[in-house]
Design goal:
- There is one protein chain.
- By secondary structure, this protein is an all-alpha fold.
- It has a domain at 227-264: Orthogonal Bundle (Elongin C, Chain C, domain 1), CATH 1.10.750.20.
- It contains 16 helices and no strands.
- Helix 11 packs antiparallel against helix 12 (183-191) and helix 12 runs parallel beside helix 14 (215-222).
Amino acid sequence: MADFWSDRTPLHEAACQGRLLQMRSLVVQGFHVDTLTMDSVSPLHEACLGGHYACAKFLLDRGANVEMVSTDGATPLFNSCSSGSAACVRLMLQHSASIHTPDLLASPLHEAAKKGHRECLELLLSYGADMDMELPVVGTPLYSACMARAADCVRLLLHSGADVRIGCGRDSPLHAAVRGGGANIVDLLLDFGADRCCRNAEGKTPLDLSTENSVVRVGLQKKGPGSLSQLCRFCIRQSLGSSRLHRASGLFLPHSIKEFLLYQ
């Protein structure tokens, strides 16, 4: 790879701008598809960050490395999630891109959740991504989505079986939602069993973090203990686990109870 080391090249620029014809011409002229910048950024990184599917496919068809990691830990899959291009995410996954980079500096799953790119997140989950993976500082994908007030991603993760108790260290997703001021997300987390009494490393509950007379505070205060049916739902979902949650639809139970278990 050292033979192809370079600073930013015309091929990087063409990939960034989505100029497929120019890319073809440059490759014919001798530019290598895995030419790297000083930060280990490849043309495939650039194409994915711009959401340029045709350019990304062209590079992959000519042998571009789908697992290339930049100095800040980003892979082409990570950049695809950052841009919100579900087509590029699917393309990377079809070329066996690793969902989790070894150094865990940058997770495609967390990036999709943080940016609110639900379709990208859904694709990653369908390929077996660990929805409860907790990274230093950024926490779990659910925590990241709560911090960013990405309600659609929060909802998808919860419906898929993400653990509502795991956030970032002792800080829960509910703490993050309160900090972000997302009243609808707070209500959603509570519906999925979030503990309003849990304390973070500073000894504060989610209620302690809310501001006086805020909608979030009112929501936290008005919710009473869960009903028996709600507690049963939490117990059954926890017993099944996220990997077997889909099997709830096959249980020998009335249709209405199945829908209740799956929040449908």
